[in-house]
Design a protein that fits this description.
A hairpin with a 2-residue loop joins strand 5 (about 60-65) and strand 6 (about 70-75). The N and C termini lie far apart (about 80 Å). This protein has a single domain (about 25-140), classed as Immunoglobulins (Immunoglobulin-like, Sandwich), CATH 2.60.40. The protein has about 160 residues and is mainly beta. It is elongated, with a radius of gyration of 22 Å. The chain is built from 1 helix and 13 strands, in the order αβββββββββββββ. The model is unreliable at about 5-25 (pLDDT under 50).
Length: about 160
């Protein structure tokens, strides 16, 4: 077999693999609630994501991100085991029977403001499936005097 024939065979193999990989990834429908959440600084927050998949999940990874920064990444195996789902004030819980996974933020701080997204990747059974929530905007208001209101000394908070 000449060099050109080998090159053509290799090219055909790459095209086949590329098409096969494109078909191997299907979406999972995920809904996320609430869409907007306003709390006072120090409050505890819970954000919910629910997925609609009729299959038994053998292995999956899910994560929570604030904007594009991953804040928590979790691994689930055998439909129940969860690993690495707590980081300081932030934790996650999951109920695969109801298809619900939740983000918990304890004692919110002003730096927690942002848009939070849940991501899910089902590894097994194949094909790999992925999904992403529609986002929850978290607004943490400072405790004490509200923004734009005068304190007893006449100062306006935020200016």
């Amino acid at each position: 077999m000449g060099f050109e024939a080998v090159l053509n065979t290799f090219t055909a193999l790459l095209v086949f693999l590329a098409l096969d990989l494109q078909g191997a990834c299907a979406d999972v429908l995920i809904s996320q609630t609430p869409s907007i959440l306003t709390v006072k600084e120090g409050a505890d927050v819970h954000v919910n994501c629910s997925l609609d998949t009729p299959q038994q999940i053998a292995e999956a990874f899910f994560e929570w991100a604030n904007e594009d920064d991953t804040i928590l990444s979790c691994k689930m195996q055998n439909y129940s085991h969860i690993e690495n789902c707590r980081h300081h004030r932030i934790s996650a819980s999951i109920n695969w029977n109801s298809g619900l996974f939740m983000l918990h933020i304890n004692s919110t701080q002003l730096k927690d403001n942002g848009t939070y997204y849940c991501h899910l990747q089902i590894e097994r059974p194949v094909p790999i499936k992925t999904g992403r929530g529609n986002g929850t905007v978290l607004i943490v208001e400072a405790s004490g005097i509200p923004f734009g209101v005068r304190d007893p000394l006449g100062r306006v908070r935020g200016f």
